[in-house]
Amino acid sequence: MSAATMPDPTQRDRYVDADAPPEERTYAMFTHLAGMIGVITAPIPLAGPLAALVMWRIKAHQSPFLDDHGRDAMNFQLSLLLYAVILGVLTVGTLGIASPLYFLTIILCLVGCIRGAIAANAGAYYRYPMTIRFLKP
Length: 137
Description:
- By secondary structure, the protein is mainly α.
- The chain has a domain at about 35-125.
- About 60% of the residues lie in helices and about 5% in strands.
- It has 5 helices and 2 strands; from the N terminus they run ββααααα.
- A two-stranded antiparallel ribbon has the order 1-2.
- Helix 1 runs antiparallel to helix 3 and helix 3 runs antiparallel to helix 4 (about 65-95).
- The protein is elongated and about 50 Å long.
């Protein structure tokens, strides 16, 4: 294990890339925050996944740090999209009984994106909760 990827005691055993420059940390932070666009702009439901995809693919080749954060942000956005589709089908099929669960996916999106952004800004690697790993490294 290199010094660049040692667990940082202040980051609760998360691996920290001490060599990640501030520009990469900031870009990774905005990649995570881009996922919240879909929540903020409700009329454009695919804005979050598309923004995360574009930001990830633009800089994925520049460093493993950016590639990891972008891939995980994209996996989270795809998972949220799948959950929203499933809840949409359940809401229609159950006459609205599942619709309160959709509110929980919005909270999961906001909390997850903010925590991912904070970790990226600190140079730490982050794994979202409740995420299906569609895109493998």
